[in-house]
User: What shape does this take?
Amino acid sequence: MTQISDTPEAVRTFLDAEQSRAVLLASRPFTEARDAVAAWQIGSTLVLFLLMLGFASWMGPSPYLLLLAPFGAGFFMRIFVFQHDLGHRSAFRSARVNDVLGTLLSLITSIPFEPWRTEHHWHHNHQGRLSKRGVDNMNSPMTLDEIPERPAEARYRIKKVRPLNIFLLGAHSLLIERRVPRGFFPFRESFKDAVHNREAMLRAIAWTLPAHLALHALVVLTLGWWVSVLVLVPSLVLGAGTGGVLFWIQHNFEHTYYAEDEEWHKANTAVYGSSYLKLGGVLRWFTADIGLHHVHHLNPRIPNYNLERARRAIPELAAVEPLSDEDLRRSFTHLFWDRDARRMRPAQGKLDG
Assistant: This one.
């Protein structure tokens, strides 16, 4: 792996095929699931979540309950990351246990398990491929050379990509669009790959929302309407919007990775094309280490509780620098892929006139 200086003129180089295979091989020991750890993570989180709801019930209807929304959002994000791990069948040794628990947690998050898992697997297998742009709109950048051909689209992209907009679009995508089949990649016209579990996805979409609403009804009946209206709903919206921002910065940053099919390697999508967001203890707990996204993308069978060990042990991952404040800012300004320099750029005057 060649290290380069970070100058505008420098052309980045990436792992070759042999290096990619070696890094992937090095990740395998960390895929070992530990059932007791996973059970403790999920069980203790649900207990704490229920304790928060019980406290809100005891408090009674009060606008001060809205102060619990950030904590509730954190719980929803943590539970969603568990659902995500279960979708990869990485948390427990048993595939059936992963599937059953993932389905049950989806009733809390309201995100259908089977269609989310299906499109997420596609994301892992195709992220960073320039030829696959247009399916996953969040990770489909225009290139610099496309700006003169499609200036209106470029201007729209510049106008739309703002932190608040990404927050709102993320919440809308997760909580509204994904109530119907077209909210998921495999049901869109732009999706050309074969789909083998269409009926299972449709069933999950059909019953997840009613089951989620039934849980809300149970909360209203047992804990009080204010727990649902003043705690759960704001928490879900805040968590979904924050999740949307996290999704964005996981792959949209200046020194990310895209390649044509003949040059694309999965390990490069991880080491170069997935970010390392270093969070403090509380935020790291609420996000279940999803900030170590470069480790997760190298091998999605690594459960969240093994990600940090893998990061420290694999030199290519340990060498990845966490995103700085400036990197985060540029995630929303450097929106166009420079094929020559192999990095994201701002429009660079290509829209002048």
